[in-house]
């Protein structure tokens, strides 16, 4: 005889404000087989859980229904409580009174009636629930880190230092990411390369890290602890073992006028190139799109000059298949380019540049050797305007969010400019100064008070050219919204930070959710900022939203700890809510007829063939079998099975039918 | 071919030259322009500042009359009238409830099927395709195309040209042999309705537009709005006084320049009505 306990939670006022919880508990308490029914303000709290545990023991309950919020957050909480009281956790069900009822309806009798219905059908279901045992799966203790910027580097090093193997994949020819392009970093003004390059070298030399640059993730299969990743190692067109990185080929390559990506288009590179002198690995790559040999079929100057004969023109892309247990996504961000702004000239004014271009101008290794020279004619700008919030916080531009890093880097840019051009004038147009962070506001004040940067609160309406100067029209909202015109030699737009190109495609390959701006989505905005909704896949850095270096590094270390925690176990337990093919005694063995239609629709390749043999080893019957490690419990095979031989643990056909019948008041 | 035309108040008043040039071109290209019978005021700036329902009812009545008279396409040369009509059509489309109320107010059926054309769209669709064979006097001059505020805005409703750096008028001018200059003031404010109440503001704003165009070597400024024209042309003495200079840049309606290019006389396109003398060798 079933003895069901029902626990109605008020969820503070989230449920009780519209649902009469007392009446729900009372009505449910009168149902057949309900041995105990009660209500409480916070069922998930410690006293709430104790109440459940005590009731299970006292009333010898055979199943419970916790009527509270969405099972997403607290189902594990209540199932654990049930288990601690000696009840199989899968005999605990949750009725979602909050999302399915109280939040979406007004306070009235019908709302309470609906709440009663929701609880009632689950009472009927839990009566026929089976006790289930968790599934154990092994863990492959190798991590995959995607993206070799500062977040990826930090994550890879932290995981590697716990003693686990790491595969680091970077799509460009070198690791380093945007940080390697920066000149100085706020708020200390230490040189970005000086703090980054030692870490890049550490990655290259770490015995636990395998580095694949110029490589991309091709596909991903499997599940937490047991992923299989395919990596496309794009042809570098050189033999990395033979190449010594002497760089002779790059100096002799006749094709020299290709816009340099690392210099943000402000310099040129040859067709065979290393992105920058401190690149890791310091081995060149042939850009086949621009290489004369690949275009015209002749040249091969690099092959002739190479002292170690390391050039391989016919090298194919390689596909590597690797078993891994966890993934850290650290694919970073990009910025909007100046051509995004019609009011600032659609990118047609050479002296209107973006923040990354200014970083290269200010960098000692940049195209000007660190001198601030305007791109159009190489003259030192005497009057420079910085426009913060170019695109950010502007719903009309489709970017409603704050890009977070711009206030700080704009202050830094203005400061660097003033340090290099003492007689120059720097103006900053801003909406608000958002400088929350350790020593951040002090840094901005320094720019204003010590370096005399002219901060103007207001937006820039338009920028146009007149007699070789840039006319910046804006408004000073602190001076009674006075229109303002500044005749500038150069303008730097702090353009909005956006998701990296290819983020959406990667998210789809990895089955990870992302937001409308193509930033990767965290599992919970506050309590699970490092996890994704896909178990075993974690986030680090600006691929989630624009972040500065300290935040990216902190999150990267957080992700590394999550991976290490996962790898501290030899076996993982999985929810047993998977499909199963029925088995019965010989000579039938199973009602499955072996049509394997299920195999063709299973999205997870979880359906295998099982053969029954007689004593002579002859196959008598072949039936389907579910690989419990791969099955995600989607139920597609159940719906498709023509002989009703497949069912889903926890959501059997019978259980679903019972719920529907309960709703129709059959019981 | 028959196309409806909504002249609004200015084309029969301060912008008669615009009206004359539009009709003159239409004649050259065998297009019959039919005035919407019993048309009323579009509401101009006043209505939508005072009463939303009124500001929708007035243009809705005009559009309903066009429908009733079988005019599927209506040319609206005045940029301000065009804006009111297009915005009304959009609002009534997205808010059926308001549409039903407005229908009761105007006591006419309204379906919202009329295609409303501004002057550039009209030229683009009906004149430019046949321009080559009619072009007798290519307008070989440096011109500054001035769009003003209403012709290409609001972007969300119009979805026509790019609001920050429009190009359609420049394209039309290129087709008649003109050389449109780089002109960053093309969508700056001319002072608009302050024409009457605050001439000092108009003098300053319009003056800057003219100053920049002259500075960049424009021989003519091309406009497609009666309000812009009157601010830039009629208010020229005030502008010159304000700037203590003598700007001589003539302001032409786009249809006037086009009319001259297809061989119409200065008088036929109404050049004699300008306040700033137009000296053109023809």
Summarize the structure.
The complex is a heterodimer of chains A (667) and B (282). Chain A is an alpha/beta fold.
Write the layout of secondary structure elements.
The complex is a heterodimer of chains A (667) and B (282).
Chain A (H helix, E strand, L loop, with lengths): L3 E6 L11 H9 L4 E7 L5 H13 L4 E6 L2 H14 L7 E5 L1 H5 L6 H19 L7 E4 L3 E5 L3 H12 L3 E5 L14 E2 L4 E2 H14 L3 E4 L2 E9 L2 E8 L14 H5 L5 E2 L8 E2 L2 E2 L11 E2 L5 H5 L4 H5 L12 E7 L1 E4 L3 E3 L16 E3 H8 L20 E8 L15 H15 L4 E6 L9 H10 L4 E4 L2 E7 L2 E8 L5 E7 L1 E6 L1 E3 L3 H8 L26 E3 L9 H19 L3 E4 L4 E3 L15 H5 L5 E7 L5 E8 L9 H5 L5 E3 L4 H11 L4
Parallel strand pairs in A: 1-2, 1-3, 3-4, 6-7, 6-18, 7-10, 18-29, 20-27, 21-22, 21-27, 22-23
Antiparallel strand pairs in A: 5-30, 8-9, 11-12, 12-17, 13-14, 15-16, 19-28, 24-25, 25-26, 31-34, 32-33
Helix pairs in contact in A: 1-5, 2-3, 5-18, 6-7, 6-15, 11-12, 12-13
Chain B lengths: L1 E4 L10 H13 L3 E4 L8 H7 L1 H17 L4 E3 L3 H16 L1 H11 L8 E3 L1 H9 L3 H4 L7 E4 L9 H4 L9 H8 L3 E2 L13 H4 L1 H17 L4 E4 L2 H9 L1 H8 L7 E3 H8 L21
Which descriptors apply to this entry?
heterodimer, A: 667 residues, alpha/beta, FAD/NAD(P)-binding domain, 5-stranded parallel sheet, B: 282 residues, Glutathione S-transferase Yfyf (Class Pi), Chain A, domain 2, Rossmann fold, 2 domains, 4-stranded parallel sheet, 14 helices, 8 strands
What report would you give on this structure?
The complex is a heterodimer of chains A (667) and B (282). The relative contact order of chain A is 0.10. Chain A is globular, with a radius of gyration of 31 Å. Chain A folds into five domains: 4-134, 3-Layer(aba) Sandwich (Rossmann fold); 142-227 and 319-332 and 511-567, FAD/NAD(P)-binding domain (3-Layer(bba) Sandwich); 248-305, no CATH class; 335-498, FAD/NAD(P)-binding domain (3-Layer(bba) Sandwich); 579-648, Alpha-Beta Plaits, CATH 3.30.70. Chain A contains 18 helices and 34 strands. Chain A has 667 residues and is of the alpha/beta class. Chain B is α/β, with parallel strands linked by helices. Chain B has two domains: 2-119, Up-down Bundle (Glutathione S-transferase Yfyf (Class Pi), Chain A, domain 2), CATH 1.20.1050; 136-273, Rossmann fold (3-Layer(aba) Sandwich), CATH 3.40.50.11810. Chain B is built from 14 helices and eight strands. Chain B has helices spanning 16-28, 44-50, 52-68, 79-94, 96-106, 119-127, 131-134, 155-158, 168-175, 194-197, 199-215, 226-234, 236-243, 254-261; strands at residues 2-5, 32-35, 73-75, 115-117, 142-145, 179-180, 220-223, 251-253. In chain B, strands 2-1-3-4 form a four-stranded parallel β-sheet, sandwiched between helices. Chain B has a four-stranded parallel β-sheet with strand order 6-5-7-8, with helices on both faces. In chain B, α1 links the parallel β1 and β2 (32-35). In chain B, α3 (52-68) packs across α4 (79-94). Chain B is globular and about 55 Å long. The mean pLDDT of chain B is 94. Chain A binds chain B through residues 342-343, 345-346, 462, 464-466, 471, and chain B through 162-165, 182, 184-185, 188, 212, 215.
């Amino acid at each position: 005889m079933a003895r069901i306990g029902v626990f109605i939670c008020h969820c503070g006022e989230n449920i009780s404000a519209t649902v009469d919880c007392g009446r729900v508990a009372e009505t449910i308490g009168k149902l057949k087989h309900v041995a105990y029914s009660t209500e409480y303000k916070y069922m998930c709290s410690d006293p709430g859980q104790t109440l459940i545990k005590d009731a299970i023991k006292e009333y010898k309950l055979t199943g419970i229904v916790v009527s509270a919020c969405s099972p997403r957050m607290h189902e594990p909480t209540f199932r654990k409580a049930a288990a601690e009281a000696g009840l199989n956790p899968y005999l605990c069900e949750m009725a979602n009174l909050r999302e399915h009822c109280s939040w979406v309806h007004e306070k009235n009798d019908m709302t309470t009636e609906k709440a009663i219905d929701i609880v009632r059908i689950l009472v009927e279901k839990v009566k026929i629930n089976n006790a289930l045992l968790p599934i154990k799966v092994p863990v492959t203790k190798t991590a995959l880190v995607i993206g070799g910027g500062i977040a990826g580097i930090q994550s890879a090093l932290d995981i590697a230092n716990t003693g686990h193997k790491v595969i680091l994949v970077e799509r460009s020819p070198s690791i380093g990411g945007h940080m390697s392009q920066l000149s100085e970093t706020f708020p200390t003004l230490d040189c970005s390369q000086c703090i980054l390059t030692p870490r890049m070298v550490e990655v290259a030399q770490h015995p636990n890290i395998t580095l694949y640059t110029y490589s991309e993730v091709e596909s991903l299969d499997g599940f937490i602890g047991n992923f299989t990743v395919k990596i496309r190692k794009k042809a570098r067109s050189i033999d990395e073992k033979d190449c010594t990185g002497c760089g002779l080929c790059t100096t002799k390559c006749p094709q020299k006028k290709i816009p340099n990506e690392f210099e943000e288009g402000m310099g040129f590179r040859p067709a065979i190139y290393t992105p920058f002198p401190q690149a890791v690995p310091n081995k060149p790559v042939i850009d086949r799109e621009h290489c004369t040999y690949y275009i015209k079929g002749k040249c091969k100057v690099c092959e002739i000059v190479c002292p170690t004969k390391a050039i391989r023109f016919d090298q194919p892309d390689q596909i590597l298949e690797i078993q891994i247990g966890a993934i850290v996504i650290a694919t970073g961000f990009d910025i909007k380019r100046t051509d995004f702004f019609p009011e600032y000239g659609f990118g047609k004014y050479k002296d209107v540049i973006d923040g990354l271009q200014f970083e290269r101008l200010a960098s000692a290794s940049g195209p000007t050797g660190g001198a601030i020279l305007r791109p159009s004619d190489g003259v030192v700008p005497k009057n420079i305007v910085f426009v913060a919030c170019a695109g950010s916080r502007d719903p009309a531009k489709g970017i409603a969010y704050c890009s977070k890093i711009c206030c700080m880097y704009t202050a830094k840019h203005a400061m660097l400019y003033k340090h290099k051009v003492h007689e120059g004038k720097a103006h900053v147009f801003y909406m608000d100064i958002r400088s929350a962070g350790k020593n951040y506001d002090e840094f901005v004040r320094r720019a204003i008070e010590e370096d005399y940067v002219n901060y103007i609160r207001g937006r820039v309406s338009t920028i146009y050219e007149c007699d070789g100067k840039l006319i910046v029209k804006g408004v000073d909202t602190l001076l009674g919204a006075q229109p303002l015109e500044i005749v500038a030699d150069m303008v730097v737009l702090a353009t909005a930070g956006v998701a990296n190109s290819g983020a959406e495609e990667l998210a789809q390959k990895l089955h990870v959710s992302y937001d409308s701006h193509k930033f990767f989505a965290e599992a919970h905005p506050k309590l699970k900022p490092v996890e994704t909704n896909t178990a075993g896949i974690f986030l680090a850095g600006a691929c989630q939203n624009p972040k500065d270096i300290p935040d990216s590094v902190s999150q990267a270390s957080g992700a590394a700890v999550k991976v290490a925690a996962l790898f501290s176990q030899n076996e993982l337990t999985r929810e047993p809510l998977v499909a199963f093919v029925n088995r019965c005694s010989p000579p039938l063995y199973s009602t499955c007829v072996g049509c394997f239609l299920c195999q063709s629709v299973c999205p997870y390749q979880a359906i295998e063939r099982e053969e029954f043999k007689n004593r002579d080893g002859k196959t008598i019957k072949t039936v389907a079998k579910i690989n419990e490690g791969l099955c995600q419990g989607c139920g597609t095979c159940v719906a498709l099975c023509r002989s009703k031989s497949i069912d889903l643990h926890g959501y059997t056909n019978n259980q679903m039918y019972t719920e529907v019948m309960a709703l129709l008041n059959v019981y | 071919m028959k196309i409806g035309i909504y002249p609004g108040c200015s084309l029969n008043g301060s912008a008669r030259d615009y009206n004359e040039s539009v009709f003159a071109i239409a004649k050259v290209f065998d297009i019959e322009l039919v005035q919407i019978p019993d048309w009323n005021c579009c509401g101009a700036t006043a209505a939508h500042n005072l009463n939303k329902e009124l500001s929708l009812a007035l243009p809705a009545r005009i559009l309903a009359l066009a429908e009733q008279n079988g005019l599927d396409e209506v040319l609206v040369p005045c940029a301000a009238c065009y804006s009111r009509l297009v915005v009304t059509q959009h609002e009534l489309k997205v808010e059926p409830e308001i549409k039903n109320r407005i229908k009761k107010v105007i006591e006419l059926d309204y379906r919202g099927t009329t295609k409303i054309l501004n002057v550039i769209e009209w030229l683009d669709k009906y004149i430019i395709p046949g321009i080559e064979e009619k072009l007798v006097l290519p307008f070989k001059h440096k011109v500054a195309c001035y769009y003003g505020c209403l012709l290409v805005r609001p972007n969300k409703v119009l979805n026509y040209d790019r609001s920050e750096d429009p190009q359609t008028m420049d394209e039309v001018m290129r087709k008649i042999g003109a050389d449109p200059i780089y002109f960053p003031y093309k969508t700056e404010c001319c002072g608009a309705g302050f024409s009457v109440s605050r001439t000092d503001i108009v003098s300053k704003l319009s003056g800057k537009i003219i100053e920049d165009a002259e500075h960049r070597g424009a021989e003519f400024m091309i406009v497609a709005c009666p309000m812009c024209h009157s601010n830039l042309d009629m208010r020229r003495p005030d502008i010159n006084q304000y700037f203590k200079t003598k700007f001589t840049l003539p302001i032409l309606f786009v249809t006037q320049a086009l009319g001259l290019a297809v061989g119409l006389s200065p008088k036929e396109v109404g050049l004699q009505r300008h306040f700033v003398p137009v000296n053109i060798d023809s």
